[in-house]
Amino acid sequence: MTRIFQTQFNIDLIIDLCCQKAKVKREEFMQRNRRGDIILARQVAIKIFMDNMLMTYTSVASTIGNRRYDHTSIMHHHRTVNELLSVRDERLTTLYMEVLNELKDAVKTPNNFMVHISDDEATVHRVTDFLKKEKNVFYEVLSASKPIPTL
Length: 151
Description:
By secondary structure, the chain is an all-alpha fold. It has helices at about 10-20, 25-30, 35-50, 55-65, 70-85, 90-105, 120-135.
């Protein structure tokens, strides 16, 4: 699983890629429409939001639906797309893999982000080792004695 940072650019990119690959207009994707190809595009976007961006059901609902969806609708779509992928539904699997392959090169990592961790030395080492492996990520380790900067 590729971790995609939750930025507005990446959210828009995922929606645009799902629309492009499913041959659906973005306006149709965002409106209340139950046409099969539009639902397929939404389900792929929901799967990517949930699994790769680690968004909550509520945040996905507000991103896609603007109050048309609640968290239970998103739960239903997520469950449905997982079932269809497990039985290898051809249309869904093809669309999902095409969008994921395009995303690998196109996603953006935020320039800076802050991670709060405990002062446990082992945890600090694990986090800094992880950050050292990431490209284009700048980080600073703050100790408990050093004040946390305000954003």
